[in-house]
Specification:
This protein is α+β, with helices and mostly antiparallel strands. It contains 13 helices and 13 strands. The longest helix is centred in the first third of the chain and has 17 residues. The radius of gyration is 38 Å and the shape is rod-shaped.
Length: 389
Amino acid sequence: MKYNLSTFFFFILSFFARAQNDTSAIPMSNGEKIVTVRKELINAFITEDYVSTGLWMDSLRTLENIEYIGLVWDERWLLYYWTESYGNLFEEVANFSETERTINDFKNQPPQDSLFEWLDYSLHERRFDMFQRIQKAFLNEEEKAFTTLLLEYLLRLEHDEAEWAARLEAFEKRYPDSRFRTYISYIKPKIKKKPANPVGFGLDFLLTQGNWRDQLERTLRPAFGVDFGLYIWQKRWNYILRMAITGQKLGRDIENDQNDIWPKGESSNYFTPSFDLGYDVISTPKFRCTPSVGAGLSILKPSTTEDDDGNTISEYPGFSFTSGQLNTAINLDVKLHDISEADVFERPGSGYGAIRVRFGYRWMNLGKRNPLLDGNMFFFAVGYSMMLR
C-alpha cells in the first residue's frame, strides 16, 4: 500500500482529533509518536513511496526536541541518498559538529526497530545504481566527488585504511576551500607514517649450553649458563653487544708454569663478552632469521668464594686464561605477540616478543697459555627476545 499526501495529513490530524473529541484520553508522548511515525516510515521505504518517505522524515524532525531524537544521523543521511535530497545532506555535513552529535547521543534514542537494517541492506544492494544517480544529478564536480566518498563511508565500503586515507587527502588537496573539509578531516583515518629510517632496540635473555672441542673437550665438562644481548636494529642490520656466562667442572688436572695444580672436579667460570654484527635474511610477521658474526674475548678462571671478611677470593689464583675469540651464529625468532612501544617508552611505535633460538661456534685461542686448553666451542641457546621499533 502506498501512502500519499492525504494519508500523511490524516495521520497528523488524528493527533488533534483525539485530544478534542476525547478529553479523557491520555495524550501520546513524543517518544510514542516517534515509534508510530518510524513504523510508517519503514512501510513507505519498503514500498518505495518516495513522497511519503520524505513527509514522514519531516514529521520526525518536528517531533524532535531537547529530550528526543527521531532519526539517528546515519539513518537520516542514508534517507537523503534514497530520496536524492542532496541539498539537505550538504547543509548538514557543512554544519557538522562533533559536539552536537555528542549531545544527540545523550538524548532518548529512537526505538530498536528495523529502519537502519532496511536502509543499509537496500542501499548496499543498489550501491552501483546509487553511484550512477549521483553522477547524473545536477551537482558540480566537488559535490559529486564528496557525495561518492560519503556514501562509501556510510555503507562501509572502504577496505584498505591507507588507500582510503589517501583518497580523502586527494580530495582535500583538490578542494582546499571545500565546505566539507571539516567532515573529511573527521572521517580520515589517522595513519602513522613510518619514519624513513626506522630504528629498533632489542634485548634477549637466553639459557645456553656449550660443548667443547679438541683438547678442551677432555679438560672441561659441558658448559651451562646464560647468554644475553643488547642490540640496535636498522634497515635489517643488527649491532649487538653480547655476554655469555657459563659454569663447568674440570675433567682433568691443569698444571701451570709454577707447577701449581688446578685439580679435576673443581668448578670454573667462562665469560665471553663480544660485539656481533647480524643481518635479517628473513623477516616476516611471524618469523625472523638473523645470521651474525662477531669478535670478543674468551675468559676462563676458577670459581670464587668469600672469605670470613666477605672478600671474594680464588682458591687457585694462578689460573686465569684470556684470549681473543671469533664467533658465528644463527638467531631464529618465532614471534609470539606484538608489543606497543607506548607501553614502554610512552611514545608511538610497535615491536614484538619472541622465542629466540640461537646456535653457533666460537673459535678461541686459550691453548697459547696451556696446551690442555686448546680447542673451540659449539653452543646452543634458547630464551626470550624483545624488539621495539
